[in-house]
Amino acid sequence: MASVEAAAEHERILREIESTDTNCIGPTLRSVYDGQAHGFFMEKLEGRIRNHDREIEKMCNHHFQGFVDSITELLKVRAEAQKLKSQVTDTNSRLQDDGKVILTTMEELTQCRVQQRNIATTVEKLTRCLPVLQMYSKLQEQMKAKRYYPALRTLEQLEQRCLPQAGEYRFCAIMAENIPRLRVRIRDVSMSDLKDFLESIRKHSDKIGETAMKQAQAQDQRSLNSAGLQQRGGSGRRVRKVSPSTELDGQSSSPLSEQDSGILDVEDEEDDEEEEVPGAQELVDFSPVYRCLHIYTVLGARDTFESYYRKQRRKQARLVLQPHSNMHETLEGYRRYFNQIVGFFVVEDHVLHTTQGLVNRAYVEELWEMALSKSIAALRTHSSYCTDPDLVLDLKNLIVLFADTLQGYGFTVNQLFDMLLEMRDQYGEILLKKWAMSFRQILDQDNYSPIPVATPEEYHSIISQFPFQDPELDKTPFPKKLPFSEFVPKVYCQLKEFIYACLKFSEDLHLSSTEIDDMIRKSTNLLLTRTLSNCLQYAIKKKNVGLAELVQVIINTTHLEQSCHYLEEFISNITSVLPDNMNATKLYGTSTFKIDQFLQLADYDWMATQAAGQASDYLSDLIAFLCSTFAVFTHLPGKAIEHGTLPGKVAQTACMSACKHLSTSLLQLLLEADVRQVSMGALQQFNVDAEGGEREWFARAGPVPGFQGDTLLLAFIDLRQLLDLFTQWDWSTYLADYGRPTCKYLRVNPHTALVLLEKMKDTSRKNNMFSQFRKNERDKQKLIDTVVKQLRNLISSHQS
Predict the structure, then answer these.
(1) How far from 781 is each of 538, 650, 777, 788, CA to CA, in Å?
(2) How far apart, in whole angstroms, are the C-alpha atoms of residue 719 and residue 756?
(3) Is 460 exposed, middle or buried (0-12, 13-18, 19+ CB in 10 A)?
């Protein structure tokens, strides 16, 4: 039983040896040697080996022929392999030879590809750098040509767009380092040009002012030649012509092509014999100030530029306003003084309308107020030295032309006309002194004997000089004697000359006929009661005057006294004021003075957000005073005339004059320079005062009977149409119908509307610092800006 198990175990071990890897056979053999039957195992192993040898031998015998055949074939293949090897060696040799050429070509191709890549990279880099170089070259050309504003724009493009795209190169770094220095250079050069510009306009102010005053004078002459075709507007300002190309409405950010379109337009309608008046653009080139303004704006230093410009112009204004010490000696001195002032403000007005905020309306008005006060003070001082009435009269005409010229550019000149009224008194005193010398000369040359008349021609010649009527003397034959001496007709002619001289000074002072009549009568009364009386007393007190001479003086004086009513008629004829209206003149003077006193009490809040809803107290008190005054005056007894009693007619004249003065004063109160801003609420309150219960009742109820319909309301028509236009905001109708006889707002002067609209424009901008964030405020501002632009275009188009 044990032998069977051992045999089975040995069989298993043999199978394991046959099937197991030789690396793991050690443990198997060890198990054999550990047992007791390793001899028996060896026998079994040898028997197994013999079996395998027999099987191998059988297999070899079976495959021997195939092996022999394979060896035989292999021997045959060896020869072919040797031949193939030889061919392969030859082929390889040839391939190596050919490969050397290919390798050389490939190396050359590789080098070309590297060069091509380098060229492409270089071209790409140059493509990026070329715009920088071109831009920098363009910059140098612009700097060389002194086109500094385009150069600044080029510099900005170079810095912000070209240099970042080019990359980091040494020349780019050098350019970047030069950019700040170039900006400083451009700024300094533009400032130098500005200084030259300021010096230029200082030198040319006289010529510019002369040009402006010549144009104003020519326009006045044309207005006189075409009288009745066009009336002046409510403010009486001359139309200022502005070329559309000079209007900057916020859509352009560059200078005006570095050229100035001029300040003054020259009319081509001058007479052939008159020289063409050059425009200011031919006298001053405004391009430096435009360039410098835009350059400083781009550099972010606009405030600095504005401050410098205004400071320098203030200094120039003070120099212009300093009169020469001998200015009073000749009219040319005054003319040169006025020309410089007009030239200065014409330039400022041009800069105001052709730049965006370099100067504003408030700044110009502040300068004008300073100029007005200084010039009036200088004129008062220097005119006080004048003793020649002709020089004073010429000075008055020059001041009127000066005022009208500046009024045409929107400046208020009321104080100048007030000063002219003061000069009127001075002129009257100078005339009295001159006529005193004439009277004394006539008295010295008089023979104090009746005038002998030999022929009718001599008689009519004397009667034409002096209004003498004596029916008894007319019946007597020639020769005959007139009762008075030659002193009487000569003095009477001098009185008429004096009246004409007084009338000349009153021309163009915007005075009513009644005011002119009152002034002439007062001056004539002074001439008679003071000057002529003193001359007669001087003649009487002479030691060589006898009784006959004294009697003749009495006769002469009596005839002159009797001719006074002829002088009154003469004054009435030249002033177109009836003698019955002299009382109206006195009443007008009183009412005008009272109206001015009441208006001084006006205290409007020009920045009010809404109206108070009722008329102001000062206006209520004023109307109550006027109503009571005219009511009392109409109850006076009077002589019956065609349309009523004489006092009633006088009251009507004075009432109409008071209404006109009240309307004009209210309008002037709204437009005066001190009122820099006007809100819609303040305008509505002003409208309440103008059209509310008191004024409407005053005009419609009629404090003075005898007016037909709404006659008195016509005195307020200029003010009424202006206020209706603004309170109803009916600009479309006004702009569409302007210039037509049927226009709803026919009496609204576009200049007056523009001045008031600019005051509302400033209010809209400054009323609230956050208004720009509210859509309704922005829309309102845009609407005002649009209307302002349309008004300016309207003025330009209708006056071109």
Answers:
(1) 74, 50, 6, 11
(2) 12
(3) exposed
What span, in angstroms and rounded, lies between the C-alpha atoms of 439 and 446? 10
Which helix H or strand E contains 778, and what residues bound it? helix 775-799
Paired tokens of 135? 């831009």
Phi-psi region at 646: left, alpha or beta (left = phi > 0; alpha = psi -120 to 50):
alpha
Q: What is the mean pLDDT of residues 56-64?
A: 84
The 10s digit of each residue's pLDDT in 557-573 is: 888 888 888 888 888 88
Provide the sign of the torsion angle of the four alpha carbons 425, 431, 434, 436, taken in this order. negative
| Single-letter residue type at 699 | A
Bond into 479 cis (ω within 30): yes
CA–CA separation, 713 vs 326, rounded Å? 51
What's the pLDDT score for residue 795? 73
Residue 729 is classified by DSSP as T
Q: What is the pLDDT of residues 730-768, one digit of tens each?
A: 888 888 888 777 888 888 888 888 888 888 875 555 444
CB atoms < 10 A from the CB of 304, how many? Answer: 13
Determine contact, residues 435/527, Cβ cutoff 8 Å.
Answer: yes
Residue 448, phi-psi category: left (phi > 0), alpha (psi -120 to 50), beta (remainder): left
Tokens of 520: 């002439």
Range from 307-316, 330-339, 708-717 carrying the lowest mean pLDDT: 708-717
Q: What is the DSSP string of 40-90?
A: HHHHHHHHHHHHHHHHHHHHHHHHHHHHHHHHHHHHHHHHHHHHHHHHHHH
Q: What integer pLDDT is reported at residue 271 of this predicted model? A: 41
Average of per-residue pLDDT across 286-291: 83
Helix (H, G, I), strand (E, B) or coil at 36: coil
Continuous segment of H or E residues that includes residue 608? none
Amino acid, res. 62: H
